[in-house]
Amino acid sequence: MNKHNARKAYQTDLSDKEWETIEPNIPKRKSKRGRKREHPFREILNAIFYIVRSGCVWRLLPHDFPPWQTVYYYFRIWKLSGVWENMNATLRAELRVASDRNPEPSAAVLDSQSVKTTETPGIRGYDAGKKVNGRKRHILVDVMGLLMMIVVHAASIQDRDGAMLVLGKAKGKFPRLELIWADGGYTGKLIEWTKQFCNWILEIVKRSDDAKGFQVLPHRWVVERTLGWFGRYRRLSKDYEGLTETSESIIYAVMSHIMVRRLVKIQQINT
């Protein structure tokens, strides 16, 4: 009997349709030699999504999942081989098409989020503006709020310099991209740098000087909503990871979980 069917389901588990949608992104075994894999990839993914949603540490993974060592092994292998980033890109394109958009975005929104770190060793710094000792998540999202690129770095790095890291990483990966919106923290030399180095227009969306209290700003609310989605996944409440690359892969996994659920809902509505 399949272990997935033998245990009681968690809210984070993939449905049959969600698994069918996400399965093509999992690398297939190239050789038939060696010991047969004991745990199905669906259960490995279910365990990873449980961890990122609940905030559970690897060693406290419930016993009805595969052993935590096995789950972490595959998470790490998929991190090193770029599976999480590729999964995010594939699901983003599929979700955009299902929403009657071009699979490739022509506009994007840029922002960052400073989060505290724990006692885990690794890169960190102090963000004097936000008064946070930890790391920054610099993200680039499309107009639907879907993640295009992320770079995690020390919180002490200024927004303009951090933006160069994420934009430089995105260069050459989005052939239709022309316009990027950002807030007032990105004014100055970054605008010219973006034009010269990436051939994109960086447009600053400023808050009105006359505005009082909370104000929803055009385009900027999209990326702020994405950062709000992160808050639903407790593993992202702080940066618990030793390596920034691991932090980035965790976020790609979170967005993949969000997108596959939205994609299946849209497909069900359209059928």
How does this model look, in words?
The chain has 271 residues and is of the alpha/beta class. The protein has a domain at 102-239: Nucleotidyltransferase, domain 5, CATH 3.30.420. It is 42% helix and 14% strand. The chain contains nine helices and six strands. It has helices at residues 3-6, 16-22, 41-54, 68-80, 83-98, 159-170, 189-198, 220-230, 244-270; strands at residues 107-116, 125-127, 132-141, 147-154, 179-182, 201-204. Helix 3 packs across helix 4 and helix 6 runs parallel beside helix 7 (189-198). The longest helix has 27 residues, at 244-270. The two termini are 31 Å apart. The model has no long low-confidence stretch (mean pLDDT 92).
Rg computed from alpha carbons, rounded to a whole number of angstroms: 20 Å
Low-pLDDT residue spans: none
Q: Overall mean pLDDT score?
A: 92
Number of helices: 9
